[in-house]
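Anyone have tokens for DUF4288 domain-containing protein? Sequence:
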Amino acid sequence: MKWYMAKIVYQIVCGDGQHTPQFDEQLRLIHAHNQLHAFHKARDMGKHEEDCFLNDLNKPVHWKFIDVAEIVVIDDLADGAEVYSKICEEDDEENYIRTIHLRAAALRENSSHELLALN
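Reply: yep, here.
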């Protein structure tokens, strides 16, 4: 058995769907015999985890499974092993870098709070 990373894609539809289309791309670890087995496991997972619920405005929110967009074998589950990479082009370089630094600061802060809670 090998480890695979699967990208499972959902469409999120709120209310009557009259909004900017929203999609959730989830990266999941899948333990499977081969790539086809991983694909089927990821599809089953995606279908099984479709959901429909009411939001805080009492409007329906539907998470509709679209499909599995990628399957990548993870050859080495070692510390620091790359499992995903995405190259993006941004119109506002400074804003992108500032946003990354803000996210990192929030992660650092949340991790510190978790560590203090354990003590």
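The helical segments are 35-48, 93-118.
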